[in-house]
Specification:
Helix content is 45%, strand content 20%. It is α/β, with parallel strands linked by helices. The chain folds into 2 domains: 145 residues, Rossmann fold, CATH 3.40.50; 136 residues, 3-Layer(aba) Sandwich (Rossmann fold). This is Universal stress protein.
């Protein structure tokens, strides 16, 4: 499913978990690793850094590029240690824009991003950049927080439990496709979750809560049966559950209760009776999740 995996880097320790996940996925899928560093050309950002660092304007650009080259070459070396092909590049520009351009230029089909960069010389604002990419690119983005550092150096062993929250919408079904492929690749258990959101009641005047809840639960059963059927056909172990509550909180609680180590989500829900507003829910999960989150944007 993944043949070219992009790992943007600023060379900070905060990006290390994203690098490890990216290398692990590349190893499992025999994908080419792309390491990219963007020298941020934002005038305001550079002015602030120059003022704070009192650095010579004539020598600073070389320093930026040298730091970026070193960061990408480090990923290339680590990829080679695991028998993986790697490509490195340093660009200058607005980080999110340059990353999107690189994705288009090279046919990237998965991005592994840290959600927080560092504030030093070659800062690329990975936190805000990640948010922009999740909202705008049409390929999956794996967001990994700095605090999700692995307990052991080197490759991660893989995923054992994968959660896919779903509302049956097209983006959610596409997320299920990715989750199933990952579960099959890692021999992991897939958990499918449908959350009955009481907040939907406010948008349906004329309905009693009992009436709406019954419809939502019936829709949830249909949606989860479809996931279970697809999982069975793919030979994937699956657990399915309907729960009630505030969607992003219910997803977080489920992760804690079941030891989930990867969440796969669509970034837009549907606007029918059973709407789950997956787009806004996904962003809340990204902000609050203790697990890496793979987002699949609906188009």
């Amino acid at each position: 499913m993944y043949t070219d995996i992009l790992i943007p880097t600023d060379g900070s320790d905060n990006v290390e978990p994203a690098i490890q996940y990216g290398l692990e996925l590349a190893r499992r899928y025999d994908a080419t690793v792309h390491a990219l560093h963007v020298v941020d050309s934002s005038p305001i950002e550079r002015k602030l850094e120059l003022t704070a660092l009192e650095t010579d304007l004539e020598t600073l650009p070389d320093t930026w590029y040298e730091a970026g080259d070193a960061a990408t070459k480090q990923i290339e070396t680590r990829a080679a240690e695991h028998g993986l092909d790697a490509v490195t590049e340093v660009r200058r520009g607005i980080p999110a824009r340059e990353i999107r351009s690189y994705i288009t230029d090279t046919g990237i089909d998965l991005v592994c991003m840290g959600t927080r960069g560092h504030t030093g010389l070659d800062r690329v604002l990975l936190g805000s950049v990640t948010t922009r990419l999740v909202r705008t690119v049409d390929i999956p983005v794996l967001s990994v927080k700095a605090k999700q550092a692995l307990s052991e150096p080197g490759m991660r062993g893989g995923f054992e439990t994968i959660l896919v929250p779903t509302d049956g919408s097209k983006p959610a079904r596409e997320a299920v496709t990715h989750a199933l492929d990952l579960a099959r690749t890692y021999d992991a258990t897939l958990h499918a979750l449908y959350v009955v959101d009481r907040g939907a009641y406010a948008s349906r005047p004329g309905w009693t809560w009992d009436e709406l809840q019954q419809v939502l639960e019936q829709n949830g059963e249909t949606v989860l049966e479809d996931v279970q059927s697809r999982a069975t056909a793919d030979g994937v172990s699956v657990a399915a559950e309907i729960t009630h509550g505030v969607p992003h909180q219910a997803i977080g609680d489920y992760c804690d209760q079941h030891g989930i180590d990867l969440v796969v989500m669509g970034t837009h829900g549907r606007s029918s009776l059973s709407r789950r507003i997956i787009g806004s829910v996904t962003e809340r999960v990204l902000r609050n999740s203790d697990e890496p989150v793979l987002t699949i944007r609906g188009v």
